[in-house]
């Protein structure tokens, strides 16, 4: 147990000796002179978006058409000859 504590202390001590990266050099001059982003009111961010009318009225029809298209594609791939085989 004592060895584990000493090992963790040594690892933490060595990690504290590392240098920090120069983050100021990573930001270009155009980013430094850019305007701050416009903040949105918290009420707009927290409200749930309303569902589009097209997606809300018939999701089953869209899924059925998509399923039929996928089944047709699978049937086509299943019946396709294997090249070189």
Q: Can you describe what's shown?
A:
With 85 residues, this protein is mainly alpha-helical. The protein is 59% helix and 0% strand. The chain has helices spanning 2-16, 29-32, 42-46, 53-57, 59-79. The N and C termini lie far apart (63 Å). The mean pLDDT is 82. This is Lipoprotein. It comes from Allgaiera indica.
Tell me the series of helices and strands, N- to C-terminal.
HHHHH
Q: Structural class, from helix and strand content?
A: mainly alpha
Taking all Cα atoms into account, the compactness measure Rg is: 30 Å
Proportion of residues in extended strands: under 5%
Largest sheet: none
**Residue share in helices?**
55-70%
The beta-strand count equals 0
Q: Give the averaged pLDDT, no decimals.
A: 82
Overall form: extended
Distance between the termini: 63 Å
* Stretches with pLDDT under 50, minimum 5 residues: none
Number of H- or I-type helical stretches: 5
Organism: Allgaiera indica
Protein name: Lipoprotein
Fill in the keyword field for this structure.
85 residues; mainly alpha; 59% helix; 0% strand; extended; Lipoprotein
Summary of the model, kept short:
It contains five helices and no strands.
Task: Outline the fold blueprint.
Blueprint (H helix, E strand, L loop, with lengths): L1 H15 L12 H4 L9 H5 L6 H5 L1 H21 L6
